[in-house]
Design brief:
Layout (H helix, E strand, L loop, with lengths): L11 E4 L2 E4 L15 E4 L5 E4 L13 H22 L8 H22 E4 L3 E7 L2 E7 L2 E4 L5 E7 L3 E11 L5 E13 L4 H8 L3 H19 L3 H7 L1 H19 L3 E8 L6 H99 L2 H14 L9 H6 L1 H22 L3 H7 L3
Protein name: ER lipid raft associated 2
Subcellular location: Endoplasmic reticulum membrane
InterPro entries: Band_7, Band_7/SPFH_dom_sf, Erlin1/2
Length: 434
């Protein structure tokens, strides 16, 4: 929306020494009549509006345009009033602000000085005016009097103190240096106050560092370079640990030495070269000795191998011999068993034959009656294909009384041979078989 015409804007008035534009134009009136009217100015002054003054006509557009022009004018007047209503500081406010800032800074510094933090594995000890207080604190945030009380944090966990470049003179007058000696130690919490009170918070300097120098020099002064550098070097750390712990048990109970590690000392260059040459020769000697041991071991291995082979052959022969002996014994037992069985069979057969013969004899005794013998005689005569005549023949048959028993026995044998044994000589003579 545009600016109103210049005719609608009032003039500038001066009121109370301030130049201000009037925000409310005079309401236009009808020009009829010669009346004059008094108009109060925006600055409190009064001016007379004569009828001769030409009043511009209202702008075209009606009431809506008039309201828009008034609203725009009010906005401009509000901005101008706000710019003119600025606060002017009173005298002395700057000094009060500076004092407040100083007080706040002091309080902040005091608070930062009062609060402090103790790390885990540490114990806090406090000093006031240089005097050690009896109170201690554990890990966490704590408060103390600012600018008066100070604190130190003492570690109670495992820590490693390094003592560097420690000189040491041997019994032969050679000066050697240990580059680094490490002492692993820890402090018991209940002993923190007493140790700090007696040896300050830097107790390790008095109890460990100085003691390492003293004990190492004591050790070197009674041993040669050969012993310190080579022969007894592996015992230095243990000796230092025992010596330190023995003194600390008396002087500072609660400080525990966990371990001591000693590096190889630095010796003069010429001596070091001699030692290197000696070590080289010793290495060659060890190599030769090892080769000799290898050869001996190989020979021993071959001997043991041959011995094992011989023992194996002997054991195999012994096993074979035992096997053969067992076979022979088995065969012997088998033969004995077979002989016993054969003897038993033969004995049984002989007993059976004897029994059979006895029974046959008994049967023949019952069977060979005179009548039966006479019958058999006639059968035998009848069976002969030849008949002999002479003076002896009748005797053969007629001499019955003298040869009856002999004839009976021969006849019995003949009968027995007929059963399975074959004809006897008497039967052959009796029958005269060709």
């Amino acid at each position: 929306m545009g600016e109103p015409p210049a005719e609608w804007l009032p003039g500038h008035e001066v009121h109370a020494g301030r130049d201000r534009a009037s925000c409310f134009p005079a309401r236009p009136r009808s020009t009829a009549g010669p009346r004059s009217r008094a108009v109060r100015g925006g600055a409190g002054g009064i001016r007379t509006l004569n009828p001769e003054d030409s009043v511009p006509p209202p702008p075209p557009g009606g009431a809506r345009r008039r309201r828009a022009l008034v609203t725009s004018q009010l906005r401009r007047c509000g901005k101008a009033g706000a710019a003119q209503r600025r606060v002017v500081p009173r005298p002395g406010m700057a000094q009060l602000g500076a004092i407040a800032a100083l007080v706040l800074s002091f309080l902040a510094a005091a608070f930062l000085s009062a609060i402090h933090k103790i790390e885990e594995g540490h114990i806090g000890v406090y000093y006031r005016g240089g005097a050690l207080l009896t109170s201690t604190s554990g890990p966490g945030f704590h408060l103390m009097l600012p600018f008066i009380t100070s604190y130190k944090s003492v570690q109670t966990t495992l820590q490693t103190d390094e003592v560097k470049n420690v000189p040491c003179g041997t019994s032969g007058g050679v000066m050697i240096y240990f580059d680094r000696i490490e002492v692993v130690n820890f402090l018991i919490q209940s002993a923190v106050y007493d140790i700090v009170k007696n040896y300050t918070a830097d107790y390790d300097k008095a109890l460990i560092f100085n003691k390492i120098h003293h004990e190492l020099n004591q050790f070197c002064s009674v041993h040669t370079l050969q012993e310190v550098y080579i022969e007894l070097f592996d015992q230095i750390d243990e000796n230092l640990k025992l010596a330190l712990q023995q003194d600390l048990t008396t002087m500072a109970p609660g400080l525990i030495i966990q371990a001591v590690r000693v590096t190889k000392p630095n010796i003069p260059e010429t001596i070091r070269r001699n030692y290197e040459l000696m070590e080289s020769e010793k290495t060659k000697l060890l190599i030769a000795a090892q080769k000799q041991k290898v050869v001996e071991k190989e020979a021993e291995t071959e001997r043991k191998k041959a011995l094992i082979e011989a023992e194996k052959i002997a054991q195999v022969a012994e096993i074979t011999y035992g096997q053969k002996v067992m076979e022979k014994e088995t065969e012997k037992r088998i033969s004995e068993i077979e002989d016993a069985a054969f003897l038993a069979r033969e004995k049984a057969r002989a007993d059976a034959e004897c029994y059979t013969a006895m029974k046959v004899a008994e049967a023949n005794k019952l069977k060979l009656t005179p009548e039966y013998l006479q019958l058999m005689k006639y059968k035998a005569i009848a069976a002969n294909s030849k008949i002999y005549f002479g003076k002896d023949i009748p005797n053969m048959f007629m001499d019955y009384a003298g040869s009856q028993s002999k004839f009976a026995e021969g006849l019995a044998e003949g009968i027995h041979e007929e059963d399975g044994a074959g004809p006897s000589e008497d039967t052959k003579l009796l029958h005269n078989t060709n």
